[in-house]
Specification:
The structure is a homodimer. Chain A is an alpha+beta fold. The first copy, chain A, contains eleven helices and 15 strands. In chain A, the strands form two sheets. In chain A, strands 1, 2, 3, 4, 5, 6, 7, 8 and 9 form a nine-stranded mixed β-sheet that branches. Chains A and B meet through helix 8, helix 9, strand 13 and helix 11 of A and helix 8, helix 9, strand 13 and helix 11 of B.
């Protein structure tokens, strides 16, 4: 697998565009469009929050119908959540405008929104934006990058990635972009994620791969424990690479799965590291768990703890907080079997052995924790299952950003 | 019921003492003792965290044995959690010293610790403290108040309360003290709570009352979502009021239950309001839920949301975050049925009607939210069950306190 430029435009036949619709932000793009020259198989995973934003309902219905799609329109600034019938009408109007401009059907257009909950979107601006985006589509790394920037809210930088690899001797591509960075929690985060690929794969296998990959990537990150109303991850596959069609499990499926997993893991870690106010990426790897689910639960409990996150910000090796978070995770275990290591920049320290603190140096630990990428490694000594969760520290800036988000 | 002075010393036969053992804090008391002239029935509830501090294991065993007790010794600064055999030996040594000084048995002495996890307690200081406390016991409002202050960690003020009421024509008393204020989350918080009463009640009925009361009081508060390793709530009943013994449910039990609930609710709300860094008490009342459990889950989900808490700090009526938190609580409901009100200082505003924002004034809402006691009232329109959860806002100071707690 070779990392390449081009983001969502790296796969053949995908174009992108960005536009400043002035929905809420000034002086930046706040709408993006993704378009495929050919019909795409589509797969999606969505928020589990029972309060679902209007575009989530729209996209879910399209994905469930199983027909091919051609485009996606995304806006930032307003989430179009808790907006009732007016919100749903706005989604339809936007899809209709995009379809009209692109000469496709409205149910070939997926819609994504992120931003403030409870406000109505200015439908005229969305409609104007859809037409402007359609006329500005191009296939270039620059267009992909502008689109990745246009979907940001409080993110500090865009998140995109692309790879080239081979399936059945044929060169294929996969690209992706996503945005974080607050209201981020498993079961989809406040994230919008768009994966494009020119791999020929059936809709069923695409959905299977996406659903499985999400479990250990996007669903293993947490910024603040809040599961958003808008989380949406979509994968578009247009088949233009002309590899032998993947319609069953097997070697080709495995190759695609691995590429999809690499793209999603990269975007997920980027989102965790760019959590609101975050100064560092915090990983927790739990190994030696009795079941895979328990490994995931334990790792996420540590990453989600406000006290662990605050200690990470303060570079304080207050490991009892990690052990405490394992303890209230809901998983049953014997604390006397737990070992814990802190790791950063290729240096590893054994902090807790058999549930009791070791004679480590606080100064050395503080120095290690000052890295911008800290790993907490936990061995439960119960079995052979492992999982990794990704989060960030809790900082003054998180509070600042969220105390005053709407103004 | 009449509110009275005297805290844990208000009921007949209870004495208290405080002492500066210099375990971690300087220039303040950091150990407290509670003692009853007569043997007490004892009831307790403890953390559900599988990582339990040594004193929690000690106390739980005593409560489960069902014998009467006489005293409690509490220290602050170090939690004696994740300390292995050395930690348990320290608990025994402290109980033995207190028992020796008081002329009672060591299994009549309950132990409580709060503070940093993972450090060993200086056993000599604990032992010296136990003897000093025993010689300083007295029954006075001042002694009760000093004890309530001595058990504080990052609390900004002591929490104590006492009431006088009647059972079967006999005047009886109940008092309590507790400490918060970080690592506070349902299923017992990082709290230590001590209730004293001179009511004559059987151990079984005392335990039943305490367990039931906790569900809607201490277990409905949250500061930061972290369930501590040390949470302990103990109720001591020495029977000195000589009311007709309460050994079955009935009118007298109901009267006692009501008094116990009042004391626990007062202490719980005080703890929420004094959460680390908090500037205000935030209540969420959910009514119209289909089941009592669902009402509790919904209310706690709102109170526990970092985004709701940050918005409360910023006096931002960002009600979509409340609706979002209801949505990811795990309870199934139709967002279109949800009404939401903000209330403070006898002013109430309808913010969200049938899942959609009303035409409220942002300025008026911001003014209302600037109160130091804000209520979020939610009507689910699904049934007739209700519950109230108690929390606080998320502030810079929370991060500051917890990024650097150990230094």
């Amino acid at each position: 697998m070779k990392k390449i430029q081009g983001g969502v435009c790296a796969p053949k036949g995908f174009k992108a565009a960005a536009y400043a619709a002035k929905i809420k932000y000034e002086g930046r793009d706040d709408m993006a469009m993704l378009y495929s020259d050919e019909p795409c198989e589509i797969a999606g995973t969505f928020t589990t929050n029972v309060v679902k934003a209007a575009p989530v309902i729209w996209d879910r219905d399209i994905v469930q119908a199983g027909d091919t799609v051609r485009a996606a329109v995304v806006n930032t600034g307003i989430a179009n959540a808790c907006t009732g019938q007016e919100g749903m009408d706005c989604v339809k109007a936007t899809a209709w405008a995009a379809a009209d401009a692109l000469g496709i059907k409205e149910n070939e257009v997926l819609i994504g929104s992120t931003g403030v909950i409870g406000m109505q979107l200015p439908v005229d601006k969305l409609r104007t934006g859809a037409y402007a985006l359609a006329s500005g589509l191009e296939r270039s790394p620059e267009a992909a990058n502008r689109a990745a920037k246009a979907i940001m809210t409080t993110d500090t930088h865009e998140k995109e990635i692309a790879y080239e690899f081979e399936i059945g001797g044929v060169t294929v591509h996969i690209g992706g972009m996503s945005k974080g960075s607050g209201m981020i929690h498993p079961n989809m985060c406040t994230m919008l994620g768009y994966i494009t690929t020119d791999v020929a794969i059936s809709g069923d296998m695409l959905q299977k791969a996406l659903s499985d990959v999400v479990t250990d990537t996007f669903n293993m990150i947490s910024v603040d424990g809040d599961t958003s109303t808008n989380d949406t991850l979509l994968a578009f596959a247009n088949g233009l690479a002309e590899n032998p069609m993947i319609d069953t499990e097997g070697m080709d499926y495995d190759t695609f799965y691995k590429a999809l997993n690499t793209v999603c893991l990269h975007l997920a870690k980027e989102m965790a590291a760019d959590g609101e106010g975050a100064t560092k990426l915090v990983e927790c790897e739990v190994r030696g768990a009795d079941t895979k689910d328990n490994a995931r639960i334990l790792a996420k409990s540590v990453i989600g703890s406000s006290l662990v996150k605050a200690a990470m910000y303060g570079c304080d090796a207050n490991w009892g907080r990690e052990l405490c978070a394992l303890g209230y995770s809901g998983v049953t275990f014997d604390p006397q079997n737990v070992d814990m290591y802190f790791r950063a920049d290729d240096k590893e320290m054994l902090i807790c052995k058999s549930g009791v603190g070791t004679d480590y140096s606080e100064d050395e630990a503080a120095k290690l924790l000052s890295s911008d990428h800290v790993e907490i490694k936990v061995d439960m000594h119960m079995g052979s299952e492992s999982a990794v969760a990704y989060g960030c520290d809790l900082t003054y800036d998180y509070v600042k950003i969220n105390a005053d988000y709407r103004s």
